[in-house]
Design goal:
Radius of gyration: 17 Å
Order of helices and strands: EEHEHHEHHEHEHEHEHHHHH
């Protein structure tokens, strides 16, 4: 397995690669021949950093990531504070599609896992129409993980995209890598719903201003108490204790 070219930086005890562009990240994922490099891509945000500090299992799983990237403006600011580089936020809901786009040339085998049956079926249709080589998919409503292990064993995919939400998706990926390590795994949360058109992202202006989190808070007020926990991350950042 190839090692990523970018060296990680510790943010609150969690390793994060200080990418300065999407292209820099893709260079760690796609080798010079155009093939996908096996590994584990994980989006790191302040919530995951705080969770890792209190939950050893989460910390251990995040430590396994070969492509830990900043998908949260708080982590980006912390990286900039530590490195002095112009690090950027890379949205996981866009990155997985960029990776699949690059996979078309070599017709890398792709497996999709997660979401409702009708949603993942829609995603399969959209991606196969774009010539992505989706060899199998499984919705997120399975009772036994053995179904997923059998699917991976039968298809031996090059890329596995898991949309089960955190930390469930990362925990499943960690188990799958023990039996089939020759693939790139990535957890994408609710991105299947975004691709299917069931969930809308923040307008582009909000994204550019790094206020996508605030837009989601307005749309989903129930997230308010979750966001309050992030004040601890802000405190650690302000006092340079990350």
């Amino acid at each position: 397995m190839s090692n990523p070219k970018t060296s990680p930086v510790l943010i609150g005890g969690v390793a994060v690669n200080p990418y300065e562009s999407l292209e820099q990240l893709l260079a760690d994922v796609i080798d010079p021949s155009g093939k996908v490099v096996p590994g584990m891509a994980i989006a790191i945000n302040p919530e995951k950093v705080l969770k890792a500090q209190s939950d050893p299992q989460t910390h251990d799983i995040l430590a396994q990531a070969t492509i830990p990237f900043a998908d949260g403006i708080g982590v980006v600011k912390a990286l900039q504070q530590k490195t002095g580089k112009k690090c950027v936020r890379i949205a996981g809901c866009e990155l997985w599609l960029d990776i699949l786009q690059h996979s078309i040339t070599h017709q890398s085998k792709v497996v999709l896992i997660g979401a409702k049956p009708e949603v993942i079926a829609q995603c399969n249709g959209i991606l196969t129409d774009k010539k992505v080589n989706v060899v199998a998919y499984q919705d997120g409503y399975f009772n036994d993980e053995a179904v997923i292990f059998d699917l991976i064993q039968q298809t031996t995919p090059d890329i596995v995209i898991v949309a089960l939400g955190s930390p469930k998706q990362e925990k499943l990926i960690a188990k799958l890598r023990e039996t089939h390590s020759d693939a790139l795994y990535m957890g994408v949360g609710g991105s299947f719903d975004v691709l299917a058109g069931n969930v809308k992202r923040a307008p582009e202006m909000w994204q550019k201003m790094n206020l996508e989190w605030f837009y989601r808070l307005i749309k989903e007020p129930k997230r308010f108490f979750r966001q309050l926990k992030l004040l601890k991350f802000l405190q650690l950042y302000l006092f340079k204790r990350l």
